[in-house]
Amino acid sequence: MELENHRVVITAAGRDFGRTLAIAFAARGAEVHLSARTAEAAGHVRQEIIGQGHDPDRVHAHACDLTDPASVRAFAAAVAARGGHIDVLVNNGARYQHGTDLLSASDEDVVETLASGATGTVLATKAFLPLLLASDKPDIVTMVSSCGEPGNQRSDAHDSFYAAKSAQAGFTETLSRRLRGQGVRVISLYPPDFDNHDPLSPAWQDAPRTARDPLTSQSLVDCVFFAIGQPRDCFIKSFSFEQV
Hints:
- A seven-stranded parallel sheet has the order 3-2-1-4-5-6-7, with helices on both faces.
- It is globular, with a radius of gyration of 17 Å.
- It contains six helices and seven strands.
- The protein has one domain (7-236): Rossmann fold, CATH 3.40.50.
- With 244 residues, the protein is of the alpha/beta class.
- Helix 3 (69-80) runs parallel beside helix 4 (107-133).
- The chain starts with 6 loop residues before the first strand and ends with a strand.
């Protein structure tokens, strides 16, 4: 799927899977607006993408702290200043908190985990919704987690991360129903822990995989492209995955 006519916003794209998504979208021709908590981190990924031969005018780096409403609004305003719409919002940002003991995390860690994953997703969606509604092909993609699935107990994540992801799942479920009438597709991914392979590596497309191998970021990227590439009457609400 080629995406030359898509304007894409990706939160928390300064490293890990957000960086993977930004590189993959740019490789398919999309105009990419990527954010990270610091301008330096976002700018580093932008330079990586430009270094692959992409037009600098179609790769934009922004600083955005998803726990700060003013920062989220400023990010949306900066994107709006470069065009009147966006076609895809990828809610990727969420702080991971490790630990199966509730008492192992500080109160500050709990607040930031919930604020980045739950509150940040709501704030980003709210801030960018007017730009999405101005598109003729609007999609909201949210990277939830298997931790957001009811009854999932297979992760070693902290209870606060489970809470953040459960909140994301409930939000996107409601949003999917409420925005469908306006043509906005709300797509949620519920992956277990996965290997984030570097998309700039030659092995990105060639590594053999079997049913015994853990999920890779390539598969998740393929799911995103598959969902947004469907005709506009096809609403794929979610992707769930078996765990090894």
